[in-house]
Amino acid sequence: MIAVKANAITAGSCRTRHSRRTMIVADVIGVDRKHGLLKVKDPQGNVVEARVRHPELLDSVKEGDQLTLEYTEAVALSVTRGP
């Protein structure tokens, strides 16, 4: 699913934001309960470390577990006309 939101366009400028929700199955390779961080490796071998919104959920997670993760990737873009 890709959601696109465009802000008002004024003369000589344009702003837009794009976001995409993604679901993957990943291997847990690190858990930092003190800082609420989870490090996972996706099926392509990419390693991602992310802050968990609800760190109490990390209490039952350990290295070697497989998790199904849903996350949002976002990009904001602003283009303005030069002087």
Dominant shape? elongated
Q: Assign the CATH topology.
A: OB fold (Dihydrolipoamide Acetyltransferase, E2P)
Number of helices: 0
Low-pLDDT segments: 1-11
Q: Overall pLDDT, averaged? A: 81
Give a description of the structure:
The protein has 83 residues and is mostly beta strands. The chain has one domain (2-80): OB fold (Dihydrolipoamide Acetyltransferase, E2P). 0% of the residues lie in helices and 60% in strands. It has strands spanning 2-6, 13-32, 37-41, 47-51, 66-80. Strands 1, 2, 3, 4 and 5 form a five-stranded antiparallel beta sheet that branches. The radius of gyration is 18 Å and the shape is elongated.
Short description:
The chain is an all-beta fold. It has no helices and five strands.
Structural key phrases:
83 residues; five-stranded antiparallel β-sheet; 0% helix; disordered N terminus; mainly beta; 60% strand; 5 strands; OB fold (Dihydrolipoamide Acetyltransferase, E2P)
Write the layout of secondary structure elements.
Blueprint: E1 2-6, E2 13-32, E3 37-41, E4 47-51, E5 66-80
Antiparallel strand pairs: 1-2, 2-3, 2-5, 3-4
